[in-house]
Specification:
alpha+beta, endopeptidase fold (from Nostoc punctiforme), six-stranded antiparallel beta sheet, 10 helices
Length: 237
């Protein structure tokens, strides 16, 4: 994956700005800098580095925005996980973009809503950190999106689950798992998101995640100590 240099800003500030700051980047004209694939990449990381206070403030007002419908779906957790697993190996380009997940999100109705919420432009999503876009895309492709949710900003995605009383601390197959690498347990600490495959019953979970490692979709094993919580889609069966 493309890496860009980040200077003069703590990881916690980048984490709080997280993914959604990409839409501010187009307005601020930030240059690309180095970031971990699991936290902030491309334009989003650069903006968080140069303007962390601006990025954080822009998301506080509308972080929980999303559709609030409780539409029932005829999709199982196994179907969602199969779709996610089929994407393993998909990789971003040298600019941190080029994935079908980013392209789909940039052209989606939701992108228009989050641009209205956060500012910026749709095109800013094309090279933005895409872990939450990956989860959203899988939901869309399987017909599970009304339960999986959709957003480009991990914190907003988690807050949507919480607002619908579907957020907790028990790992379940097909749950949407939200991470904070420093072990923080506040929703505002969230830096990354993926799907739970299983609880390994040894303090770890197996997952499928986008924008991880070197900017790919990968199967991972994560310690539960890095988990902030889980969003629970109401699957069929």
């Amino acid at each position: 994956m493309a890496k860009h240099r980040i200077n003069a800003v703590s990881k916690s500030n980048i984490a709080r700005a997280a993914l959604g700051v990409t839409v501010i980047a187009s307005a601020l004209g930030a240059n690309a800098m180095t970031a971990n694939a699991d936290t902030a990449t491309g334009v989003a990381a650069a903006t968080a580095a140069k303007h962390p206070a601006t990025a954080i403030a822009a998301h506080k007002a509308g972080a929980a925005d999303n559709d609030r419908t409780e539409t029932k779906i005829n999709v199982t957790a196994s179907q969602v996980l199969a779709m996610a697993k089929a994407q393993v190996g998909t990789s971003e380009n040298s600019y941190g973009g080029g994935t079908k997940f980013q392209q789909w999100y940039a052209g989606s109705q939701r992108a228009g809503e989050t641009v209205a919420r956060d500012g910026g432009s749709r095109s800013a999503y094309l090279n933005a950190a895409w872990c939450s876009m990956f989860v959203s895309w899988v939901g869309e492709q399987t017909g599970a999106r009304p339960q999986v949710g959709w957003d480009a900003y991990t914190v907003a995605h988690a807050k949507w689950f919480a607002a619908n009383d579907r957020f907790g601390t028990v790992a379940k197959p097909g749950a949407v798992v939200f991470f904070a690498w420093d072990g923080g347990k506040s929703l505002s600490d969230i830096q990354h998101v993926g799907f739970v495959v299983k609880d390994n019953q040894n303090g770890t979970i197996s997952t499928i995640e986008g924008n991880t490692g070197n900017g790919k979709v990968e199967e991972r094993v994560r310690p539960k100590s890095q988990v902030v919580g889980y969003g629970y889609p109401q699957y069929a069966g």
